[in-house]
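Input (structure):
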């Protein structure tokens, strides 16, 4: 369970905005260094923390990671992004940045809709 007090809905919306503004593109300062989905954005609890002082278990994204991958080095890269089960790890191996970004954005949009609907229903019944 995540130990992150940020709102997951806002976090996911911010991640889409980040991607659409070129967030995972190569840095002008370090063009040789590839960017990593989720890890190189504010979504990551260890973003800009060279010591990685937080456990990935503290991150909201851990709730989307299959149990068997929650102890992986980069658990968020094992999140199934579509019904076929493709993960960030799978898509990074293809070295197709546009396909990776599309897959992540589609997954983010589907999670956002699900959370909004759940909150709407909870507001009607609560």
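Output (sequence):
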């Amino acid at each position: 369970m995540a130990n992150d007090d940020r709102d997951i809905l806002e976090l996911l919306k911010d991640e889409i905005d980040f991607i659409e503004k070129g967030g995972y593109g190569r840095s002008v300062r370090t063009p040789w260094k590839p960017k990593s989905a989720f890890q190189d954005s504010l979504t990551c609890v260890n973003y800009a923390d060279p010591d990685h002082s937080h456990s990935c278990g503290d991150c909201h994204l851990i709730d989307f990671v299959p149990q068997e991958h929650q102890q992986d080095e980069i658990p968020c890269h094992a999140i199934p992004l579509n019904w076929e089960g493709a993960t960030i790890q799978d898509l990074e191996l293809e070295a197709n940045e546009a396909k990776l970004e599309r897959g992540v954005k589609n997954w983010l949009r589907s999670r956002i809709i699900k959370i909004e609907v759940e909150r709407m229903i909870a507001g009607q019944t609560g």
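Notes: The radius of gyration is 15 Å. DSSP finds three helices and no strands in the chain.
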